[in-house]
Write a structure and sequence with these properties.
Blueprint (H helix, E strand, L loop, with lengths): L2 H18 L6 H12 L9 H6 L2 H20 L7 H12 L4 H19 L6 H12 L11 H15 L8 H16 L26 H24 L3
């Protein structure tokens, strides 16, 4: 399922269910629900979440920086000939990696920066850094598309929110939105493997992402989500 569909469906249903259950809809809860609706796809460098966080302009800047670093290493005399040429070629060649590999490299660099320089945002900096490191090395629809990830993300939000004045519903918003993403992916031909190493796959085979039928199924799900949101927040507001 496309990223924009995940965003609308998971966020809309999550906030609607929370409102129906009597939970306060706070700005942090909305933000966590929105991020969690896309978070499982952080293991895909070309996903909506990663492309938004690491746009093409950032990739171009990284390529220029790598080429500049290669030129510097060649002329700076840091290594003895011919190793200065080898070192320069190694660094410069990284700039020619495919876009998805460059995004993974950027994710790792951001993670290192969060570990090193973002102490003021503890513990969110370490949480984000660990997620980026894991997401840059695992395959798509791997560990991030399991019930273990749902439980881990919900538990993480629960313990982090204990010291927050308005954080009581964060773990519900995050856990539910994350789980709805996985449920939506289970509609596809590929499905998900919710409890590895058990080989059981959850897949209803109703659609394939990017196809005409898949687009139709996504539109139906979006319309139903918007109808639920209108009913909960407009027709019968609490």
């Amino acid at each position: 399922m496309m990223g924009k569909s995940h965003f609308i469906i998971s966020t809309g249903i999550t906030l609607s269910v929370m409102n129906l259950l009597g939970y306060e809809i706070t700005i942090p809860a909305v933000a966590v629900a929105a991020v969690s609706s896309l978070l499982p796809d952080i293991d895909e460098p070309n996903s909506l979440l990663v492309r938004s966080a690491v746009p093409e302009s950032a990739l171009r800047l990284l390529q220029v920086a790598l080429i500049g670093a290669a030129i510097y290493l060649y002329f700076a005399g840091i290594a003895e000939p011919p190793w200065h040429i080898v070192l320069a070629l190694l660094v410069g060649s990284v700039s020619f990696l495919p876009g998805r590999r460059l995004r993974q490299l950027v994710m790792l660099l951001i993670a290192l920066a969060l570990f090193a320089f973002a102490d003021d945002y503890d513990p969110w900096n370490y949480i984000a850094a660990c997620i980026l490191v894991v997401a840059s090395v695992v395959p798509h629809r791997g560990i991030t598309h399991t019930l273990y990830a749902v439980a881990g993300w919900g538990a993480l939000l629960y313990f982090v929110s204990l010291g927050m004045n308005d954080g009581g519903s964060l773990w519900i918003a995050g856990g539910l939105s994350y789980a709805l993403h996985l449920l939506a992916d289970s509609l596809t031909q590929r499905g998900i493997t919710p409890l590895p190493p058990l080989p059981f796959k959850l897949r209803l085979k109703l659609m394939s992402t990017g196809t005409k039928k898949g687009s139709g199924v996504e539109k139906v799900c979006i319309v139903l989500t918007l109808l639920l949101v209108v009913y909960v927040f407009v027709i019968t507001p609490s």
